[in-house]
Design goal:
Strand content: 5-15%
Structural class: alpha+beta
Helix content: 25-40%
Number of strands: 10
Radius of gyration: 31 Å
Number of helices: 16
Number of domains: 4
Order of helices and strands: EEEEHEHHHHHHHHHEHHEEHHEHEH
CATH topology of the largest domain: Nucleotidyltransferase, domain 5
Shape: elongated
Strand order of the largest sheet: 4-3-2-1-5
Length: 444
């Protein structure tokens, strides 16, 4: 007896693969796939779970091909629900401009960290210093990839300009925040897109005088006893209780996190100097080396920007108590950038300016100030000695920041016939001494 042969089934359409976390939108109605059998899919209405419908596989396929329906895969997974709570129904394709490029740039750091995790077989446990150095190294590698420097077989012409959108190295804190958000959203780059367009509104629960008192007590961290932050905070709370006992208007207590943030913003040289001594600070910051010899005035000028918290400045100089209340409230949380130039041979400050941010205009004004008479400034503030420093520099040394590496500053240097030197990036101690030598000059 011959076997009963059956013809194979002819499939005239593909079987659409769906899961419970997907969304099937037919017209204006959103459906959630519930179950599948050999005949088709059973869907439930997302707006009304009691409303169910069955669609054969052929009909599901036909609707998708014709465009009357669409599928959004993994729409209902927790990761995508988190993203929709932040960005609504926008996808990463809807993100344009700086936020898009920054997210793509920082995603490359996250992938490198994951690759390092896979390589080690465990999560890397790096110190803050090593982590920061690793992030700087990764940034160089990322930019090299974007420029195509690692592709020796590339066909880019030698005279063809290559443009990339690169950003500064993220801090360890910023990287950890982005890493957590990235994986909390299922590895979606949309999870690390910046969610704010500005600083927003900060609601400060502690008044200016309370913060100033915390600043004053936090300075006890910079003493030869080398107390821990926790011990200084306990001492601060004890002092606060004692001071409030005699005050009509009580000072408010700042949190331990805020207190440690205040300490972290103190100048690094001052902290090391206070805890370990001046000799150790000079050695630690590379200022004890005498490999630089400058004998004549103007032979070598060093210039740099640094950031200062205004409240810390007023508290340390003893001027906080004489500020009007309105000024105190305005100063809280504000930071200002100072640019200064020092003559290495004489340790004399030849330029000093303040600005809201480091920029080329402030740098150019400071360079002109080096070669200008500044006695009107000392006369205006009532200084005991006139500010007579005025010199035509031979060499000016700075870092590689964009405030110095630009056409405006370099044009001034060329016009004035001044040699402009910028040390190797990533090695601030070479060839010049650390610019914190300004602290010694001011102390003197």
């Amino acid at each position: 007896m011959l076997p009963d042969l059956h013809k194979p089934n002819l499939f005239r359409h593909a079987l659409v693969k769906l899961s419970h976390s997907d969304r099937f939108t037919d017209g204006d109605v959103d459906w959630k796939p519930r179950s599948r059998d050999s005949e088709g899919w059973t869907f439930s209405n997302e707006a009304n779970v009691r409303d169910e419908r069955f669609l054969p596989h052929s009909e599901v396929y036909a609707k998708l091909v014709s465009g009357t329906a669409k599928v959004r895969y993994a729409y209902n997974v927790p990761e995508n629900q988190r993203l929709r709570a932040i960005f609504g129904d926008d996808t990463f394709e809807d993100i344009v401009g700086k936020r898009r490029h920054l997210a793509l740039f920082r995603e490359k750091f996250i992938k490198r960290f994951d690759a390092e995790w896979m390589k080690l077989g465990k999560k890397p446990r790096w110190s803050k210093e090593k982590f920061e150095a690793t992030l700087r190294t990764w940034r160089k590698e990322v930019i090299a990839e974007m420029l195509g420097l690692d592709d020796e077989d590339g066909d880019i012409r030698a005279d063809e300009m290559v443009e990339v959108r690169a950003f500064p190295t993220p801090s360890v804190k910023t990287f950890r925040r982005d890493y957590k958000r990235y994986h909390a959203c299922g590895g979606e780059v949309l999870g690390i897109v910046h969610r704010h367009h500005g600083p927003g509104l900060h609601l400060r629960k502690v008044d200016a005088d309370s913060i100033a008192f915390a600043h004053q007590e936090a300075m006890q961290y910079m003493t030869s006893a080398k107390p821990s932050m926790a011990k200084v905070y306990l001492q601060y709370r004890a002092r606060l209780d004692k001071v409030n006992a005699d005050r009509a208007v009580k000072l408010l207590m700042v949190t331990r996190s805020k207190f440690e943030t205040i300490i972290s913003k103190f100048d690094a040289f001052d902290k090391w100097d206070g805890r370990h001594g001046r000799a150790s600070a000079l050695k630690h910051f590379g200022m004890a080396k005498r490999g630089i010899n400058a004998l004549s005035v103007g032979e070598r000028i060093e210039i740099d920007f640094w950031n200062v918290d205004l409240m810390t400045l007023f508290v340390e100089t003893g001027m906080w108590s004489i500020l009007p209340p309105a000024y105190k409230e305005a100063v809280v949380g504000k930071r200002v950038w100072f640019v200064a130039a020092i003559d290495i041979a004489t340790r004399y400050i030849v330029a000093f300016r303040a600005s809201l941010n480091p920029n080329a205009v402030s740098a150019a004004a400071a360079i002109r100030m080096i070669m200008s008479d500044k006695r009107h400034v000392s006369d205006f503030v009532g200084a005991e000695t006139p500010w007579i420093g005025m010199v035509k520099p031979c060499d000016i040394f700075s870092d590689n920041g964009t405030e110095f590496a630009n056409d405006l500053v370099e044009g001034i240097m060329r016009s004035a016939k001044i040699t402009f030197n910028r040390p190797q990036a990533g090695n601030p101690k070479s060839p010049s001494e650390h610019f914190l030598i300004l602290n010694i000059a001011f102390a003197a």
